[in-house]
Design brief:
Blueprint: H1 4-15, H2 19-37, E1 43-49, E2 54-64, H3 70-73, E3 78-80, H4 81-84, E4 96-100, H5 107-135, E5 141-149, E6 155-159, E7 162-166, E8 182-193, E9 197-203, H6 207-217, H7 219-222, E10 226-234, E11 238-245, H8 252-257, H9 262-270, E12 275-280, H10 285-292, E13 300-304, E14 309-315, H11 316-323, H12 328-337, E15 340-346, E16 350-353, E17 358-361, H13 365-370
């Protein structure tokens, strides 16, 4: 076959893969074809001459001792030392002998096998290139068009050269899509499945999706001025996100919320109206947990850092706020901080003065201690 490099370059251009990938696919196809025409244990090498743009195929034989068992079990891959010395007296065990192998001498059988092998390996290279391309995008937001929704409520999305799948469990509760809709979702991972082939698994329920949306909406987060320490979500209902910054003149909460809440509202709208609480991170667990339990006001916190447990003293009027509807607030605070939070109800009532934005409590336990 003449000017094989021209053919490889044409294949690479047509299939949109690199010339190197196309060359490796061709070599693998030739080697597999040669093995089909001889035996599976035979060894071959393919050499491409860049000057003449042609290729040669060599059968490789390894020299072994005359009594080596592999001479009988794999006769097409090994040659005895005594037989090899007929070709070269200086040869030793472990050396390799190479003899030319002509695919053309096998006629149409070789051509048909080579075509099938080349088609297979080119397709594998296309998939490998796509896999590597999208693997680098894992954790980023993908934008695609819905092509169909199957009987299992899986949403199939067209994204570039591949298809994405948004399963029901990765979809926010209450969301529904129809053909032609444009959606945004986080690329969870790239996978190969016998049913779907190479595909992208998408999610809209991961906390990472919230973080990616915040980075898109808030320039300070995208630029690294404000850092997202952690995020916790109950998709479609409520979320908490912890923020920090090293810049004393930057308010991380104000930056995330935006003027009149325009930034946080844009993210909430994308998440089907999910309520998002922004809190400022603190390396001090007691402060961090107190902020995470907002809007509830706590009285005292005892933290066991080794066991990751926290006991929070709270008055009866604040307990419901700390727990939240269906336990949402305390669950999110626990997920956000990484601490198992236990509420301990204490006597007293905590109120917040609207006009002064100050806290006051009728808890008298501290006064009682003075008279003990």
């Amino acid at each position: 076959m003449e000017k094989i490099l021209d053919i490889i370059e044409a294949i690479a251009h047509e299939k949109n893969i690199s010339k190197e990938s196309a060359t490796e696919a061709f070599k693998e196809a030739v080697i597999n074809t040669a093995k089909r025409l001889t035996t599976p244990t035979s060894r071959f090498e393919v050499i491409i001459d860049p000057d003449t743009k042609t290729y040669t195929v060599n059968k490789v034989l390894t020299v072994v001792e005359d009594d080596d068992e592999r001479l009988e079990s794999e006769p097409d891959g090994y040659i005895s030392l005594s037989e090899a010395k007929d070709f070269d007296d200086s040869i030793e065990t472990g050396d390799e002998l190479k003899e030319s192998f002509e695919l053309e001498s096998y006629g149409r059988t070789a051509s048909a096998n080579l075509y099938r092998e080349l088609e297979y390996h080119i397709q594998r290279r296309i998939e490998q290139d796509l896999f590597e391309k999208y693997k680098e995008k894992v954790g980023t937001i993908m934008i695609g068009t819905v092509t169909r929704v199957d009987n299992d409520e899986n949403t199939h999305v067209e994204i570039g050269e591949l298809k994405g799948i948004l399963t029901q469990r990765n979809r926010i509760k209450g969301e529904s899509f129809k053909r032609g809709d444009t959606i945004r979702a986080l690329l969870r991972y790239v996978s190969v499945d016998p049913k779907y082939g190479l595909f992208l698994e998408l999610t809209r329920t991961s906390p990472k999706f919230l973080e990616a949306l915040m980075a898109n909406e808030v320039p300070e987060i995208a630029d690294g001025i404000v850092e997202i320490v952690n995020a916790a979500r109950i998709p479609g209902e409520r979320a908490k996100i912890a923020l920090r910054t090293d810049r004393p003149n930057v308010d991380p909460i104000g930056a995330a919320v935006g003027v009149k809440g325009v930034r946080i509202n844009a993210v909430s709208e994308e998440l089907n109206g999910e309520n998002i609480d922004c809190i400022e991170y603190s390396p001090i667990p007691e402060i961090y947990i107190t902020r995470a339990l907002s809007p509830a006001i706590t009285q005292n916190i005892k933290v066991n850092a080794d066991e990751k447990k926290a006991i929070v003293d709270i008055t009866s009027d604040q307990k419901a706020k700390a727990i939240g509807k269906s336990g949402i607030n305390i669950r999110l605070a626990s997920m956000l901080t990484g601490y198992a939070i236990e509420l301990n109800e204490v006597e007293g009532i905590t109120e917040r003065r609207q006009e002064e934005n100050e806290e006051k409590t009728s808890d008298i336990s501290a006064l009682e201690n003075l008279f003990k």
